[in-house]
Amino acid sequence: MTPKKVSERLKGASVAQSLASGAVPPPLKRSEPPKELALVVEHLGKRFGDRVAFDDVSFEVGYGEVFGFLGPNGAGKTTTVRTLGTLLAPTSGSAIIAGIPLTTKNGADIRKLISIMPESPGLYQRLTVGENLECFAGLYGLVDAKARIDEVLRSVNLTERGSDLCGSLSKGLRQRVALARSLLNDPKILFLDEPTSGLDPVATRDVHELIASLRERGVTIFLTTHRLEEAERLCHRVAILNTTVALVGRVDELRQKLFTKSLEVRIGAAPGDLVQLFDRLPEVKAWVKQPSGSYMLTVTDPDLAAPAVARALVNSGADILSIAESHHSLEEVYLELVEEDVEAKRR
Ligand SMILES: Nc1ncnc2c1ncn2[C@@H]1O[C@H](COP(=O)(O)OP(=O)(O)O)[C@@H](O)[C@H]1O
Ligand SMILES: [Mg+2]
Fold first, then answer.
1. What is the fold of 7-255?
2. Which fold has domain 261-326?
3. Among 169, 185, 130, 187, which Cα is nearest to 153's?
4. Which of 138, 167, 266, 328 could share a disulfide with 321, CB 3.0–4.6 Å?
5. What is the pLDDT of residues 269-291, one digit of tens each?
């Protein structure tokens, strides 16, 4: 048995198992649009001529859920948001947005129920924060605009900045104004496209706190990001996208599905040949030596394998420093799934 790369393992049984166990929702056949779901997306795709922006994307999002759409640059995140937000027509598949089937005819009805915060805030720099919000409240045709503007400014902690010119605000504050604008129509679904892109750590933390408070209030959020810690911190579930959806689930579930059955073994001195030792153990399916010097063993059952590995190491005279079930980061899951350079491939 030779050490196997994690990616090889992923492309083999683990991914197949996770798919079989329903990580990517199976195609749905419904006659009635489900009222209880905010988004139902089935085999959705968008091409620009020969160029595939995203393909065969399927997932569901419940009301009150913060759903992360995680993927590298060029994965198709913005195009997905624009398609679900009725700004672009899909070229294949179907979707139901807040109970309404995504069709050109339904565009206006859907837009009343949703809101999109694009990657760049798109505010009028020479107008004040308040004037910007009045302008957009007018477009929405809000009746009690003044009260609503005060409310959204309060919810992004910008009550004091209503009369500042948008052009004079930092990038972080402008992003908060954009968030306030996207809350004006009290959307059933809020699409946030890379909300912290280009922000410094302090502004990023502020935006994260605002999103977390929206999450607390039960706002349904579709959040695209290429930042893993953002997805991990804010999202109930994530989809990992690389033109198509590779995996959907809770972050801890994704980790488990792909990685839990492994043991990390740290050894001090080892007189014998560990290659032979690990290869001989039936409980060890594959193993790899990490750059840190520890050994990562893929096992069928950690509870059976750990004592077997310990016994074999002790018998061989090796000094065991630790044997632990390994916990992998979202970053490891993500990098394995999106390691290809999708954008370059398309050129
Ligand atoms: N209007 C367009 N015309 C042609 N290609 C586009 C257009 N918009 C996006 N694309 C292409 O679709 C792919 C996905 O883009 P995008 O959705 O912006 O990715 P992401 O937001 O994940 O970075 C990219 O290859 C991009 O060049
Ligand atoms: Mg984008």
1. Rossmann fold (3.40.50)
2. Alpha-Beta Plaits (3.30.70)
3. 130
4. 266
5. 777 677 788 999 999 988 998 88
